From TrEMBL:
Signal peptide: none
Protein name: ABC transporter ATP-binding protein
PROSITE patterns: ABC_TRANSPORTER_1, ABC_TRANSPORTER_2
All copies of domain ABC transporter, residue ranges: 21-252
Length: 271
């Protein structure tokens, strides 16, 4: 996919806009007594790319699931454009969710997997197939519409998963360490393609990762979380223009930003 899609940071496109999502003093305690997340305050701006960075067990995925409505906060509220929700779906727009595993239906081909959200919304079959094929082409899988998951590589299966999450044109795409199990070359390629999709589709992206390098490469903002219980310890901007490519990965600016993120992460782990 062509990376020449943006010459400067898109931050100016969203500056001054009201947050798409506002998380207010949200905590989550499980039935066994574990306090997974405590008093999290976080604003997600429309069109932003934000990474939730932290070690395993710091509540990143739990927070993401609460934003998605897959889990309810024990206390606090999550507001969508001013519509407060304590776990009900009211006020929450269409969103896409990409899990760490592709979670594809093994008996269905790529096209049918991507069509699934449209089918559940009772979109006519012909229109659903056209939209699914268009999205597969957008993630670089034109020609693989009839391929089954067993015939696809790990990176290709993740592309199908991303296409399925985006086929409804959601305002927000939530991703829970989607590239963690992939080899470095494939991961870098998908990072590049994800950034191009983000700019083209203009969705808000929230990306969970424990990789400092990945968070710096992708994000406009990095939110660092600490564990036991999960809480926000730092929230800072990644002041680097787009597009980002291999030249950025080897630049002094990238190294400096990675040192900054790594330092904030160490502080959070030691807190």
């Amino acid at each position: 996919m062509d990376t020449a899609y943006l010459s400067t940071s898109p931050a100016t496109a969203t500056s001054g806009a009201s947050p798409l999502v506002s998380v207010r003093r949200v905590s989550k305690q499980f039935a066994n007594g574990t306090l997974a997340v405590r008093d999290v305050d976080l604003d997600l701006g429309a069109g932003e790319f934000i990474s939730l960075l932290g070690p395993s067990g710091c509540g990143k995925s739990t927070l993401l699931r609460m934003i998605a409505g897959l889990a309810n906060p024990s206390t606090g509220t999550i507001e969508w454009n001013g519509a407060a929700s304590d776990g009900a779906s009211g006020g929450r727009p269409d969103l896409g969710f990409v899990f760490q595993d592709p979670t594809l239906m093994p008996w269905a081909n790529a096209l049918s997997n991507v069509m699934l959200p449209l089918t559940l919304k009772h979109v006519p079959k012909r229109e659903a197939a056209e939209r699914a094929a268009e999205m597969l082409a957008l993630v670089g899988l034109k020609g693989f519409e009839k391929s089954y998951p067993r015939e696809l590589s790990g990176g290709m299966k993740m592309r199908v998963s991303i296409a399925r999450a985006l086929v409804m044109r959601p305002k927000i795409l939530l991703m829970d360490e989607p590239f963690a199990a992939l080899d470095e070359i494939t991961r870098h390629r998908l990072n590049d393609d994800l950034l191009q999709l983000w700019w083209k589709e203009r969705f808000t992206a929230v990306f969970v990762t424990h990789s400092v390098f990945e968070s710096v490469y992708l994000s406009q903002r990095i939110v660092v979380m600490a564990a036991r219980p999960g809480r926000v310890m730092a929230d800072f901007a990644v002041d680097a223009p787009y597009p980002r490519d291999d030249l950025f990965r080897t630049s002094a600016d990238y190294a400096s930003l990675c040192r900054l993120a790594s330092g904030r992460l160490k502080e959070a782990i030691g807190s």
